[in-house]
């Protein structure tokens, strides 16, 4: 794998193993100091009701601007953080930072607003995860009921009873669980039956070709019907066009997220563009 420095961002390309290892070692070295050097920051992408476009919540997405490497996307460094165990510390920082920000927005008057935070498998399986999460909620005052944890199927493949226990404990704490990238794994349905999910998040690969692909349309309609039958909420990610939004709305998909509505943005912009607008609209409706 060789690193292509296109613009200011690093991408991976399949190539020789040795280069692969060298790049990873290099990246790992920099990732280790990223937190201390304040190179990590969070973006927030709003999630809206498909019907009334009311603000429901936001997904928290981590960003890394490395002094040496430039911008590195989460698809590149999260797997590395996961492999090295750095995700435990980084993930804790993400939760703490997001919940602190979320508390501010609630204090500004945003009611019925949730934050969806991605949790990677190793972070969730860490023995202290529940304890750390509890202390973040206590310290920041962010309500557990306003927190959604987005989990991927990768986590659940290990059919250990440990995972089931952690998920039950999380539910007892009051947080909601969302199955991210729904439909991309092999056993989404089996896991929905086995574990206490509240939300499914339809992967953007199903949304992308909605306009032209009849089978994607049927899959989405079926997924929404199934979710309803099971009492689960549905979020569709990757909504890029009005057409996609209207299809999803008409199919009964409760909430939507995507570039058509807003890209992930920094918290300042989120306050200005999203929170203030929402508060003004809610005031009008009173
Ligand atoms: P994900 O959780 O499925 O996040 C959704 C991804 O879709 C994000 O990419 C988001 O920026 C992108 N996206 C949103 N709307 C659109 C759209 O309309 N069109 C297109 N093409 N893309 C859209 P991002 O931020 O690059 O994150 C990629 C993945 O990295 C995430 O996928 C998640 O698995 C992981 N990730 C990101 N932040 C975190 C984090 O804080 N913790 C952990 N553990 N993983 C994270
Ligand atoms: Mg996600
Ligand atoms: Mg997703
Ligand atoms: Mg996805």
From TrEMBL:
Protein name: cyclic-guanylate-specific phosphodiesterase
Domain EAL: 24-278
Location(s), subcellular: Membrane
Organism of provenance: Pontibacterium sinense
Highest taxon above the source species: Bacteria
Ranges in coiled-coil conformation: none
